[in-house]
Amino acid sequence: MTAETSQTLDRGLRVLKLLADTDHGLTVTELSNKLGVNRTVVYRLLATLEQHALVRRDLGGRARVGLGVLRLGRQVHPLVREAALPALRSLAEDVGATAHLTLVDGNDALAVAVVEPSWTDYHVAYRPGFRHSLDRGAAGRAILAGRGPDAELGPGYILTHGELEAGASGAAAPMLGVTGIEGSVGVVMLTDSVPTQVGDRVVHAAQEVADALR
Questions:
Q1: Which of 91, 178, 190, 213 is deepest in the core (most CB within 10 A)?
Q2: Pick from 181, 208, 176, 178: which is nearest to 94 by CA?
Q3: What is the pLDDT of residue 191?
Q4: pLDDT value of residue 33
Q5: 96 forms bridges with which residues in the sheet?
């Protein structure tokens, strides 16, 4: 710790990160061991976090992430969308197709930013707020592929046709290396297949967005 940082805040944030990494919660003793501090300190940290609904404790005394983090999480989408828009605009204009940023929302893929090309006679309408299951559509499949070995991505992107809209093809690449955010960048176009150069351009755009969010 340096003179400019808060030890208490640092410990509180470490508690939240530890709880976010477990599905079954942690006891005071477990947190004490992981943080390397005594149980009294952990009790104080948990009590403060509980007051802000960031932590809850079940009947067995295990601490878990509280619903208060959802209120904070709702503010993430606008920030991510703002950071992604320049790369999405460039992608849409370059390939003449609707470009989108999709994030994981529970078990769904949620489009949080969409940019349509300005110069095409027609393009696929795709709106922010559109959601679908992660196992359908290029955007969701790319996110799932990003969780697995690189080999699952093949050329670095996922292609689909007609899964979400008849006659439309999609290409998407996962955003990799962004802590705390799972998402993909993709395009959707009214073609039977997506040209290879478009897939490569999507991979580049996904990297641009990931860089902007780091």
A1: 91
A2: 208
A3: 92
A4: 97
A5: none
Tally the C-alpha atoms within 13 A of residue 116's C-alpha that lie toward its C-beta: 11
- Residue in the block written with tokens 């949080």: 112
Q: How many Å apart are CA 106 and CA 6, to the nearest integer?
A: 32
pTM above 0.85, yes or no: no
Tell me what pLDDT residue 2 has: 59
Say if CB 133 and CB 153 are below 8 A apart.
Answer: no
Residue 72 has a pLDDT of 78
Q: Which residue type, as a one-letter code, is found at position 81?
A: R
For tokens 């942690």, the residue is 26
Q: Are 16 and 55 in contact (CB under 8 A)?
A: yes
* pLDDT at site 214: 83
> How far apart are alpha carbons 174 and 59 in whole angstroms?
39
pLDDT of residue 1: 55
- For residue 52, give the amino acid letter: H
How far is residue 49 from each of residues 30, 57, 159, measured CA to CA in Å? 17, 11, 44
Q: Which amino acid is at 1?
A: M
Q: Do 39 and 32 form a contact (C-beta atoms < 8 A)?
A: yes
Q: Is 105 helix (H, G, I), strand (E, B) or coil?
A: strand
| DSSP state at residue 205 | H
Structure tokens at 83: 């950071």
DSSP state of 111: E
Tokens of 107: 């078990």
**Average pLDDT of adjacent 10-residue blocks, the chain of 214 residues:** 76 92 91 96 96 92 87 79 96 97 90 95 88 94 88 85 93 90 94 94 97 90
The H or E element containing residue 186 is: strand 183-189
